[in-house]
Amino acid sequence: MSSNHLLIIMTQLFLLLSLFISLALSTNENLTKSGNYKCADVYCINLDTYSKLDVPTTPVKVSVDLDVLQILEVDDIKFTVAFSMYFGVRWLEPRIEGPLPPKDNPYVPIDIKFINELWVPDVYVYFLKRINVLTIFTKFAGLFVVNGNEILYSQETHITFWCPMRFHNFPLDNQVCKFKVGSYAYDDTKMRFNASLLSYDDSLRNTILDYNIKLKPLKAADSLFIWQSIGNYSLTGYEMILKRNSLKYIVNYYLPSGLFVIVSWVSFLIPPEIVPGRMTLLVTIFLVLINIFNNVTSNSPNVEGLTAISTWIITCILFVFGALSGYAGLLFKKNRLTKSDHLNGRPVKAGNWHGNELAFIDSIFIIFFPVCFACFNMLYWPVFLLAK
Q: How do strand 60-75 and strand 191-199 relate by DSSP bridges?
């Protein structure tokens, strides 16, 4: 083979290699078009006219997707709620250039790093404690161009936020937590928020949670934050309504303590002279109720006063204490009657320690205590169940 033929072959190989490199560069996501352009796939911005500091429209309408996947934790001690969700933010960006998307799918994914070249809304989550973005090799997030002129940024996150809970009705309480999203710097004349998606399936919730949970859109009164004289700020989000599962508390605490009070009334049927039997019954019930109260106190959220369950247990303790005090009164009356008989030289009455007089008092107690306990229940349950 002559040197001329070899030179021609090498020239052809060089041209083919140059063509291959040119084609590879033309498909690169960060291709720079003719002129000062920055591109991702087929969508570009003109760096000569585009500024990340300028809002694309006035006002900017920001749509937020709130797709709640799972309520992870409701902490009554720290007053926090943690949940996982797909958090998406979408806004109009007319300065982006590119072809229209396919009619069957207006969402076109592009390189997520392109977000660093774009103007983005300064999204602020009110009462936020912690936000974690999930990752494996890269974070669980995506960037899309929608309908050729909108930007959608979506990511899966774990969010923990503060909720001002009140536990005076514990465990018959309902809590309302408000998750609010808005702008930190732009007031409602420059940026307005709305929730384009609010989704949550309570049937998939964590079964160990102490609550049934419902999500509702924010009320109109909560969709605007008035920040003193600085301005009014647009908000969006949802109300998280937490309804506590009170059945286990009724079975574990309310029912046993109520039954102990009823059992204490049996002491009124025991003859007053059987001191060990009557005292043992009442003192044992009293100590058991004290132990239940200590257990309730250690497992109840902190409040400035009494919770509903503490009010119930204390009342039960007072009823048993009343039965003890009534028996003490009977013993005191018996001693006075016996002493009076002795001083007056009268023979001691036969039977149940002046039986008719003392039994009459017991018969009053066995009517008085149940009626009082029934009245207490008629007041207690409507007050705490209907309380907001």
A: parallel
Average pLDDT of span 321-341: 80
For the chain, the C-alpha Rg in angstroms (whole number) is 38
- Tell me the β-bridge partners of 67: 86, 199
When pLDDT is cut at 50, 70 and 90, the band that residue 352 belongs to is very low
CA 345 – CA 334 distance, rounded (Å): 16
User: Nearest 5°: phi and psi at 371?
Assistant: -65, -45
Residue found under tokens 């973005």? 133
Ordered alpha helix ranges (H), 58-99? none
Q: Is the peptide bond before 217 cis (omega within 30 degrees of 0)?
A: no
Per-residue pLDDT tens over the stretch 83-107? 999 999 999 999 999 988 888 889 9
Which one-letter amino acid corresponds to residue 157? T
Whole-model pTM: value is 0.78
Angle among Cα 161, 162, 164 to the nearest 5 degrees reads 150
Structure token digits, residue 119? 């103007």
Cα separation, 261 vs 320, whole angstroms: 6
Chain-centroid distance, C-alpha 152: 27
Strand partners, 154: 88, 142
pLDDT (tens digit, 9 = 90+) per residue, 141-199? 999 999 999 999 999 999 999 999 999 999 999 999 999 999 999 999 999 999 999 99
d(CA 244, CA 199): 21
